[in-house]
Write a structure and sequence with these properties.
This protein is an alpha/beta fold and about 300 residues long. It has ten helices and 14 strands. Helix 7 packs antiparallel against helix 8 and helix 8 packs across helix 9.
Length: about 300
């Protein structure tokens, strides 16, 4: 029996999505559930293929409120005995009501001239499957003693979402961190690079610094190959650098178009950085809004 099994599913044609299962004899601790179809298409077949039936106690830690991380939770709860869902309260609030999730996370900018396309909202609802109520709210420091599978501890890694969680081996050697850091962006299901998504600049930069300070042996993210050593250091530096690039581009753009025209700022930042040629400019609305809020907060009274 492996100590940690990582199952890779797919979102669309090319975007990988990973579920980790830390296996001890009586208890499995799962990290993230993929989209609604990931359990049926990837996770459960992999467990059957390996002859690994889940034990009587199963804990699912959902790193954050995006549909590609919690969407499979309802299906797992139906298929896996005693599945208990754990999440941070800030993100649990969005996972338990899809209308709130859409309004607060995926379609926030309609009143600022950037409504989410209806087809995208339909796709997000499909991927969410069903709303999921967290059974237990967890925060930093919550620990799990999994015997021979080790001691594990919850990390709070905010920025991508307000209540983003990670899970670290007590020795720091392995960390699962969902989408807590995003480099220069993430490929979507069709293979186009989407900008990094963060909703709070200082929190996101703090999370990047925190990860750099943890002396992580191997970092597992939701959609990237495992990172360690120099590749991990470079990825964290690229994550940090990309935030500063976006922030600088926002400053330049707001000089030209003012802060009221969010769509115009998105277009200007998208064009000036050029990193995400196949992504819509509106994909920058969340990080740009985060920078606008951060800079207004720093403005002298
Ligand atoms: Zn994700």
């Amino acid at each position: 029996v492996p100590r940690v099994l990582i199952v890779e599913g797919r979102i669309g044609d090319v975007k990988p999505v990973r579920t980790a299962i830390i296996m001890s004899p009586g208890t499995w601790l799962w990290v993230d559930a993929g989209i609604a179809t990931t359990p049926r298409d990837a996770i459960l077949p992999e467990l059957r293929r390996r002859g690994l039936p889940p034990p009587e106690r199963n804990l699912l830690l959902v790193t954050h409120c995006d549909v590609d991380h919690f969407g499979g939770a309802a299906a797992l709860r139906a298929e896996v005995p005693g599945m208990t869902v754990l999440a941070h309260p800030a993100d649990a609030r969005l996972m338990e009501d899809l209308d709130v999730l859409i309004a607060e996370r995926y379609d926030r900018f309609g009143s600022r001239g950037i409504p989410a396309p209806p087809a995208r909202l339909t796709q997000l609802r499909e991927r969410a499957g069903a709303a999921v109520r967290a059974d237990v709210h967890v925060r930093a420091g919550t620990g799990f003693d999994l015997g021979e599978a080790g001691m594990w501890e919850v990390l709070e890694l905010p920025g991508h979402s307000a209540g983003h969680l990670g899970l670290a081996a007590r020795d720091g050697e392995v960390v699962f961190a969902g989408d807590a850091v995003m480099g220069r962006g993430v490929l979507d299901g069709t293979g186009s690079l989407q900008p990094p998504h963060y909703v709070d600049v200082d929190a996101y930069l703090g999370t990047i610094d925190r990860m750099a300070s943890l002396q992580i042996g191997t970092l597992h993210l939701g959609h990237e190959p495992a990172l360690s050593g120099d590749a991990l250091d470079s990825y964290l530096e690229l994550s940090r650098q990309t935030v500063h690039e976006i922030g600088d581009a926002v400053s330049r753009a707001t000089g030209g178009v003012g802060t009221a025209d969010l769509a115009g700022i998105c277009e200007a930042v998208h064009a000036s950085l050029g990193h995400w040629p196949d992504a819509p400019a509106a994909a920058l609305a969340d990080p740009i809004t985060a920078h606008l809020r951060a800079s207004s907060g720093r403005m002298p009274a």
